[in-house]
Write a structure and sequence with these properties.
There is one protein chain. Strand 11 and strand 12 form a beta hairpin. The chain starts with a helix and ends with a helix. It is about 50% helix and about 15% strand. By secondary structure, the protein is an alpha/beta fold. It binds nicotinamide-adenine-dinucleotide (NAD) and zinc ion (ZN).
Amino acid sequence: MGSGKSTAVRELGGSDADDLVESAAGKPIAEIFREEGEAAFRALEEQTIVLALGGGAVTSPAVRDALGDTLTIWLDVDVDTCWKRVKGSDRPLAQDETAFRRLYEERRSLYAEVADVVAKDAHDVVLAVAGVHVERGALQRIGELVPGDGPVALVSDPKVAGIHGMDAQLALGSRLAETHELPPGEEAKTLGALDRLWQDLRLDRSGTIVALGGGCTTDAAGFAAATYLREIAWTPVPTSLVAQVDAAIGGKTAIDLPQGKNLVGAFHWPVRTVIDPALLETLPEPQRLEGMAEVVKTGLLAGEPLWELSDDELVRRCAAFKAAICLRDPHERGERAVLNLGHTFAHALEAAAGYDGVTHGRAVALGLLAALRLSGRETDVVENVLRPQPVRVDRERAWQAMRRDKKARDGEIRLVLLGADGPETGVVLPEADVRRELDRLIA
Ligand SMILES: NC(=O)c1ccc[n+]([C@@H]2O[C@H](COP(=O)([O-])OP(=O)(O)OC[C@H]3O[C@@H](n4cnc5c(N)ncnc54)[C@H](O)[C@@H]3O)[C@@H](O)[C@H]2O)c1
Ligand SMILES: [Zn+2]
């Protein structure tokens, strides 16, 4: 009672259980029906409905029984907070403080017994439903954290393998069946690199790919998992800030084509995502700044200064924010588009630079400036935290790239802006205004 569980469930999209079913299955409902039949769909539906159970529900053995294999999350909030929220309400069991406190103590052991995950707030609930585990030191326990007991193929990039590979191998212990290295950076996201990985993998369908590295490693290894043997399980263990707050959350995997980035890929939700913020301690400063651009974007969308938090908290909150949106819109048909705040401008700048010389983070920082200005907002946060410098690219080339951006429909540029009631997608503004703001980002 008073733990905030209803709020947490609303955060997960409450009524739209279909979206949750789709993200759990990793495919549209029509496809589940076609390939596995209605019974399979109903079974999934049963598994993925998110319910806020009443505080006393678990005192019934029948309810405890029914919870069975269901992911059960204990939202463990201290008794003072709960009492503050419910006192003075008309809830029958919250009329007398002493009785309330006694009830709270009595039920705790039952909660501990049925819970698969203990959450301290709504963000933790979202992370648990999304299968995202955030814990300092989690890499040392990766052997237990990868679901199941089948064999594991560890995939990483050469640099991360050199720093954290041995810890991962030791922690995987007897589950480790094979290790693979992808080339560094975007080279990992090429057909050549994928082809080698596909051919080197020896796992059968009971196996799990563990992807240890930045966003390039998780994107490529996740796509390998989506395609190898027509799909096997995977667990990203993101090591860069970009990957911990963005790339490893939401189930998108991809490789690049010469024609553009991320043009071939799949939605493939990981069986679990394991985030260890301690891994960020070895991340070089420029790579950290890349991730901070997405952190500032997330904070602006959430309306909270998430960039001011400690690493552990910043990663937890950003991951939860993205996970909630992706659970509600797993296949990017609607709401997920808000995550493109600042990105229409960023993609134009990156394209104008020929994807060379302008990093994504720097381009996003500039794109956020433009989005804030067009939203009539102050830009000091972006300036202070990200210190973006204008880029030297051809103005006309950037403008043409912006008009070609895949979010442009019917020749109109559609932007994500921040309105009075939060983010708005599909905003069309006079082209002259958009072009003026693009020009201001170019040296
Ligand atoms: N799937 C998605 O939803 C999504 C979202 C955002 C970005 N992405 C993709 O992510 C990629 C960028 O990810 P990135 O910025 O992590 O790049 P990256 O994977 O190339 O990593 C950046 C560099 O940091 C190093 N590194 C990573 N972790 C480290 C650590 N703990 N200590 C020391 N060095 C470390 C890597 O070796 C690499 O040199 C892009 O390809 C982008 O398209 C995907
Ligand atoms: Zn981005």
